[in-house]
Design a protein that fits this description.
alpha+beta, NADH Oxidase, four-stranded antiparallel beta sheet, two-stranded antiparallel sheet, 6 helices, 6 strands, globular, binds flavin mononucleotide
Length: 190
């Protein structure tokens, strides 16, 4: 762990423990919530972005086709897309997108699995973000056409994961507490 010239703690070495690295999976799942207020001034280091994308790269996918591409948006590009919608002051977006060249696995019964694959990869990113002390929020309501034009994308954006350090007023919404449990959640077929 190093102290940067600004006095902020910078995690530089790949082996450095992340702020929440002592959290087990239960705690990470517990700590994650949709953060809708980020500290816009605090940027995410390139090293952290790499760690987040490494988490996505480890996710399973049907037939291991990994039928997605991630458009990582920071800095001036982020300022441009912020004119299109509110990203809650995030410092980075990881946009999960599909590539026409790779439709992913489609079963003999016609089931398409690429949305599922993308969700798994981005959930890994969301949990890694929690481990790194970052907040995250999935954003499905995207202005697709405008986003493609602004970023000159050749891929098809599906969903964004907004990322950043939670602002002082960040808190889970009431929705966060509404969880299905027991028979409402599952049926056991013994
Ligand atoms: C596929 C998907 C799309 C979502 N789209 C949005 C969105 O456009 N805007 C938003 O503020 N939250 C969005 N969310 C966040 C959900 O509202 C949130 O996950 C849900 O209310 C549960 O709250 P929690 O994440 O705090 O547990 C989305 C979540 C998912 C999984």
């Amino acid at each position: 762990m190093n102290k940067s010239h600004t006095g902020a703690t910078a995690w530089t070495a790949a082996s450095s423990p992340a702020p929440n690295s002592i959290l087990n999976l239960d705690r990470l799942l517990e700590e994650r919530y949709s953060c809708r207020s980020f500290d816009h001034q605090r940027t995410i280091s390139p090293h952290y972005l790499e760690l987040l994308l490494n988490a996505a790269a480890k996710a399973p996918s049907a037939c291991n086709l990994q039928p997605y591409h991630f458009e990582v948006v920071t800095g001036k590009s982020l300022a441009r897309v912020e004119r299109l919608r509110n990203f809650y002051g995030a410092s980075a977006l990881i946009i999960g997108a599909f590539d026409a060249q790779n439709p992913g696995y489609v079963s003999a019964q016609g089931q398409e699995f690429r949305l599922f694959d993308l969700g798994l990869a981005l959930m890994a990113v969301a949990l890694k973000a929690t481990e790194l002390g970052l907040g995250s929020c999935f954003i499905g309501s995207l202005p697709i056409k405008e986003l493609k034009a602004t970023l000159k994308l050749t891929t098809e954006p599906i969903i964004a994961l907004a990322l950043g350090y939670p602002a002082a007023d960040a808190a889970p919404s009431e929705n966060h507490e509404l969880r299905r449990t027991g028979a409402e959640l599952y049926t056991l077929h013994d």
